Amino acid sequence: MAVVEDLSIWVGSGRLYAKDQPPGSSGRSVRQAIDDVVEAEAIGFRRAILSERYNLKHASTFLGIAAGKTSRIDLATGVLAIRSRSPLLVAAMGATLHAAVGPRLVLGLGKSMPTWIDNTGTLRPTTYREVVDYAAILRQLWAGERVDYDGPVGKFDGLALGDRYDGPPPQLWYGTMGFPVGSRTAAKPVFDGAMLWPCMTPEAVHTVGNRIRREREANGLDPSSIRIMAPVITAPDLSDHETRALCHARLITYATWPGIDDVFATMNGWDVEVFKKVASHPMFNKMADASADLAYHREEMMDPASLIPDSWIEDSCGVGSTDACVAKLREFKDAGADEIGIYGSTPEQNAKLVAAWKEL
């Protein structure tokens, strides 16, 4: 099967179930999501990406199993919060996976939530310098160096891997919405790529891509030396209900994050008042978690999802016929994305889309 170099896919999007779900359901179990990686490889996707959650989506466990069931497809985190693990553990994860199955790992890294408790038991915001330093420490460890460091990541004296994989290290990508400081961070030499956010319009991707490449050039680097991925939700030839579960309900997750409403309003020119109506929906009043997809499966969010304008979905997602979805993905490529990361729908649901993409 020919590999499509500019198409990858997120697997296990949203909240996963512990038990397998029936055919046609928009929900997936952990086992089904791992099987989706196998399917993605067979269809020809370049890489499979997992967004980690601290429940049934532990990245190193999931990707390790998926690696053993596949032989070619690249595997990625999208994204791994840097406060979730010591850099030594992440370096060991990458080295172990590469030693076992070859250089197939892309580590997408991102800022932890501001309320993350660090190893001192105190609360503090994650800084952009912390992300860059964390990535630099990983690179030192993979190079076989001993790390002496005292800074925002922590204090390390003689940190080292010992046994290591003597081959290409995992690629490091930064997950960002691409505002000015985030773009400057993504453009640092320690990063090979930038993962943008789902539900950005092609115009937003164009703006952010140009910003990151200008920053890359300002660092004395070739602006084309960083690979920019645009995640795009697709629902090719799917029912109206399934399309709304995949697209409209996906946006509900972001509508319930504090402060994200203003971010999307600025980025895409969307009405912030719509997000406020969604966030005030009765089903979210007593939600323990800040994110809806930690509290609900998307099938359970169809009522608040009805508040999301169809025009927003048409602007930022690939919906309708396969040909319409291909045309929308083409818009993102023309906007400057080096790679499309299909989001939400399964590899099987996108098989015809991939076949059509190969014919372009």
Please describe what this structure looks like.
This protein is 40% helix and 16% strand. An eight-stranded parallel β-barrel has the order 1-2-3-4-7-8-9-11, surrounded by six helices. The protein has helices spanning 30-43, 59-69, 87-101, 128-142, 180-186, 202-218, 240-246, 248-255, 260-268, 272-279, 302-305, 310-316, 322-334, 351-358, and strands spanning 7-10, 47-50, 74-81, 105-110, 147-151, 154-159, 171-175, 193-195, 227-236, 318-320, 339-343. Helix 5 (180-186) links the parallel strand 7 (171-175) and strand 8. The protein contains 14 helices and eleven strands.
* Quantity of strands, as a count: 11
* CA-atom Rg in angstroms: 20 Å
Order of strands, main sheet, comes to: 1-2-3-4-7-8-9-11
Q: Which structural class fits the helix and strand makeup? A: alpha/beta
Shape, principal axes of CA atoms: globular
Poorly predicted ranges: none
Distance between the termini: 17 Å
**Biggest sheet record:** 8 strands, parallel, barrel
Order of helices and strands: EHEHEHEHEEEHEHEHHHHHHEHEH
Helix content: 25-40%
Mean pLDDT: 93
How much of the sequence lies in strands comes to: 15-25%
> Please, how many helices?
14
